[in-house]
Design goal:
Length: about 475
């Protein structure tokens, strides 16, 4: 938990930005895997964590903006609870460390909200992302579950995004502590990966490493020799000589701030010439995209820059042809790069995506482009000092997409399908770093993780017999 004054100041700013009414911030509940007492690891709601820092289930907070009053609702443990869970501080004691002096039993929350509703004062809440939360809000506010999203507060969404988007020094330190774990995860995977091993052996070792450090994964690991599947969570392939494996993984710090790093690993310790050529294009795009990051730059322009660099490199290899500007404008490069070049991150790997991605990554004037490739760009708005973002270009050869485009003769003026066919079994390459936008430019966060061809090969060869 951060210092008490951090949470007090955050809530003060939130009240100022919302202006009036009641702010309702429910925490998350525990969720059973297959029967009530066998539960998934608990993860607190990120916005609740941000404003209250209380990392346990069964809580809800009400902030009365008009009366400048804050109450956390929850229950103390009973003797029966203590038998199974052991003694813990009272709710009031826990809340004091976050600057909250008033607490109440959870069963009083409904009556409190009903009284407020009778006063015709607005109740602000964020869009729920769990079915359990939707049902709870429906019960508390006496509205139909299907109508809950109709009552979500845009005022609160914008206030929360405005605060959480700008990371403080303490938050950046948390992200970098998560990146320390990412360094260990990535280098372990490079050293371990070799022909004859299952992908799951590497994934298990990385997850065990994270758990041994008292932390947890920030998201399900993507580790696969089929890197052309962008979010591939299957780990059952045996790695073979000549394969490359995409390792997109991250950890959460003790306070749940995330890291998100991708490297592409030569399973046999060395890239082939063809792999080196594609890897070099992606690395060039990543490095130049990072160099373009600075305050005031619209991230959609960084995305477009990555498109141009990838297209130029692919043209040099003969996979693309024609005028690069025209090819990018026609969307030809999206055959090879189908996703966005990055996103915001912090307490969430895709920061505040639950609140509404367009509120986080776009503005009233900078709207999401609905075209293929562009529509997957989670961040398009102008960058500001304090933003933490990922930069993660890639090149992916997806056989099914190649077949469809080829049959449709799509962008045939810019794509040499004959040469592309020779790469249909290539897989994919992605390289990703986490970047802080500073007052005058940018800083790549964390300890330097091997990234150049030479660095990756050297680290990968360390684990070979």
């Amino acid at each position: 938990m951060f210092a008490e004054k951090v949470y007090i100041e955050r809530r003060k700013r939130l009240k100022e930005q919302v202006g009036s009414g009641i702010i309702l911030l429910p925490g998350n509940e525990e969720s059973p895997m297959n029967y009530p007492d066998n539960q998934y690891p608990f993860r607190q709601d990120s916005t609740f964590l941000y404003f209250f820092g209380l990392d346990f289930p069964g809580l809800a907070a009400v902030i009365d903006v008009d009366q400048d009053k804050e109450v956390v609702f929850g229950n103390d443990l009973t003797v029966d609870d203590i038998i199974w869970m052991g003694p813990q501080p009272s709710l009031r004691e826990k809340c004091q460390s976050t600057g909250i002096s008033e607490t109440a039993a959870l069963d009083r929350l409904h009556g409190t909200l009903k009284k407020i509703a009778g006063q015709n004062r607005g109740i602000h809440f964020l869009p729920p992302y769990r079915a359990q939360s939707t049902l709870k809000l429906a019960e508390l506010l006496e509205i139909a579950p299907a109508q809950v999203h109709d009552y979500v507060s845009e005022t609160l969404i914008k206030a929360v995004v405005g605060q959480r988007a700008i990371k403080t020094e303490d938050e950046i330190a948390e992200i970098e502590s998560a990146l320390e774990i990412s360094y260990e995860m990535q280098t372990l995977a490079m050293k371990m990966s070799r022909p004859g091993m299952y992908e799951r052996e590497i994934v298990g070792a990385m997850e065990g490493l994270v758990l041994s450090l008292g932390c947890r994964l920030a998201f399900p690991t993507i580790f696969s020799v089929h890197g052309e599947t962008l979010h591939n969570h299957y780990y059952g392939n045996i790695m073979k000589e000549g394969d490359i494996a995409v390792n997109d993984s991250g950890a959460e710090s003790a306070l749940h701030y995330s890291s998100d790093i991708t490297r592409t690993i030569p399973v046999s310790g060395k890239f082939s010439q063809r792999q080196k050529e594609i890897y070099s294009i992606v690395l060039d795009a990543e490095e130049k995209a990072i160099e373009a990051v600075k305050p005031g730059v619209e991230f959609r322009n960084v995305h477009n820059l990555a498109y141009k660099i990838l297209a130029s490199g692919l043209k040099d290899l003969g996979l693309m042809k024609g005028n690069i500007e025209e090819a990018v404008g026609a969307g030809a490069v999206t055959l090879f790069f189908q996703c966005g070049v990055g996103h915001t991150m912090g307490l969430d790997t895709h920061d505040m995506e639950d609140i509404g991605e367009d509120y986080v990554g776009y503005t009233d004037t900078i709207k999401r482009n609905p075209e293929f490739g562009w529509r997957s760009l989670r961040l398009g708005r102008a960058l500001e000092p304090g933003f933490v973002i990922t930069v993660e270009p890639g090149i992916y050869f997806i056989p099914e997409l190649i077949d469809r485009w080829k049959a449709e003769k799509k962008c045939s003026d810019f794509i040499d399908y004959g040469k592309v066919e020779k790469y249909r079994d290539f897989g994919g390459i992605r390289i990703e770093d986490d970047v802080l936008v500073t007052e005058n430019g940018r800083r790549v966060l964390g300890k330097k993780i091997p990234k150049t061809i030479g660095e990756v090969e050297t680290m990968s060869s360390c684990g070979l017999d």
